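debug: dumping io for the single-chain case to check the tokenizer round-trip. Nothing else runs in this session.
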Amino acid sequence: MILLSASSVCITNRSRRRSNGVNFMTQTLLQLIQYGRDILRRRVYSPLLRRSGFQIAGGLVVILVLGYISYQFLYLVSKPDLILLNPGRLKILVREPFIDVGGTLREEARLSINNRPVSIISGAFHQRLYLALGLNKINIEAVNLRGKLAERELYVVYNP
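debug: decoded output
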């Protein structure tokens, strides 16, 4: 749009070679500067650009609101994040009559190992369990405040 206007200014000025002692190039340059000032003063943006700017801003707001709603939904339906550090494997052969079970919970939850409550300090837990001869099943359950359950099962074989 600017190029078309500038060329039309140049065409109209070619017919006039000199005006009040100012040469053709200077006069054309002054008219282009004036046209630029008019653009800046009027804020010559098309209504389409204004409308699309509002549409982009509205779209971003909608995306942010939907993102927040999905984050809250996932928070409500997610299970507690139970991470076992000890013992690391699912099946273990031990020679001692006990095993230390430990790990972390990333959120507030109730924890029980073999249906016995375990205290959680700063998101970490540690419990020593005494084993019977042969195969022992260890059931670890964490229930968060929303009632969602995370469960792990371990099998430990005690063979002295």
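debug: round-trip ok. Helices lie at 2-14, 24-42, 47-77.
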